[in-house]
Amino acid sequence: MPVMFLMATMGLYLAGTVFFLAYLLRRSEALSKVALGVTAIGFLSHTAALVTRMTEVGHVPFTSFDEAMSFFSWALVLVFLGVELRHRIHVLGSFILPLALLSLLSAAALPKEVPTLEPVLRTVWVHVTLSMLGTVGFAVAFVAGIMYLIQDGLLKSKRFNVLYAKLPPLDFLDRLNQQSILMGFPLLTLGIITGAISAEFARGSYLNWNPEQTWALVTWVFYFAVLMGRITVGWRAKRAAYLTIIGFAGVILTFIGVVVKGHGPVA
What we know:
Blueprint: H1 2-25, H2 29-57, H3 65-87, H4 93-109, H5 124-157, H6 162-166, H7 170-203, H8 211-233, H9 237-261
Helix pairs in contact: 1-2, 1-4, 2-3, 3-4, 3-5, 5-7, 5-9, 7-8, 7-9, 8-9
């Protein structure tokens, strides 16, 4: 049953991505409405897939890498729908939904295993959930940074085309960038702390300095520096956009480290 819902979700997210990208290049508000409707249906299908999976395995299904990536995709679409409901920034879907689709496709490409967890590891979903929610915040900051640089480039070159008309003002994008980091950083911090506690119970060590833990700490330090720079020094605009794009590259490297390690239970 979860496979059926996931296949439907991927098809709907793919269709939504196509409609959103078409909306990005054409002067048609109808395309955004169709894209948003398809995405909302896909989100409901995705929710059904997660709930069905949880019923099937008997625990919260965020304990393996493919499950974590599926949850990341789901949470990313949830945040997009929330921002869309509040601000009506249709064009955000042209950047967010492709990222959610890629995440879901990567989850589908990995072998499906239902790990038999020791009792002490059954709380690892707390670590994964917090870490993924923090990553969602950084992903939105990454998208806001890309949109900022595109809009800034269009303004400087005085190309007031369809894309320029649909992208939000620079101040809004800069604000979205900062708020996303403010949301993501505390969640990642809690994710790292709960992960270290789980590792202590499971292996007798809070930190093993494996590649994914090392990159997670490097990513934490980087975003801490960016956050402090924004709050104390006043880093804004283009500098903040570039830094959040670089920081998200670190997040991707962490994910790759998990895959190379073997995409087993996330701990």
